[in-house]
Each structure stands twice: as C-alpha cells, then as structure tokens.
C-alpha cells in the first residue's frame, strides 16, 4: 500500500479528527491513500461513516497500544 500522507490526530477529541481528515483529503488526488492516527475511540464509527458518505474507501483499520490507525483511499 502506497501511503501518500500521514495525519497525526492523536490526543484530539471529536470532531477534530474528522475535521483534520477532511482537510487532508482535500489535498490528495483521487486514488491516493491517507493514513490517520488517532486516540479518539469514537473515530472508528465516525471515520468509517464519513469515508462512506464522501465516496472514499477504508482500506484497513487496526488498533495498537490505544492508537487507532486508518488507511483511507480517496474516491
């Protein structure tokens, strides 16, 4: 997987991970991948729903040491 950009949103509470993700996605071309790191537990549902509504694809998700990692491909 080629990651185009990494967004570190650790320590930010809702809705900031979504706000920052949206801003970062606007800087990408279609098909590029954004990696998002967050500690906001609500982000799992929020980012998944946001990606789907925006026509983006969640490629992968994992949790490691309290950090949620998402890989979202721009639609």
TrEMBL record:
Gene3D superfamilies: TusA-like domain. It holds the Pfam family TusA. It comes from the Bacteria. Residues 7-31 form the UPF0033 domain. PANTHER family: SULFUR CARRIER PROTEIN YEDF-RELATED. Belongs to the sulfur carrier protein TusA family. This is Sulfurtransferase TusA family protein. The lineage of its organism: Bacteria, Bacillati, Bacillota, Bacilli, Bacillales.
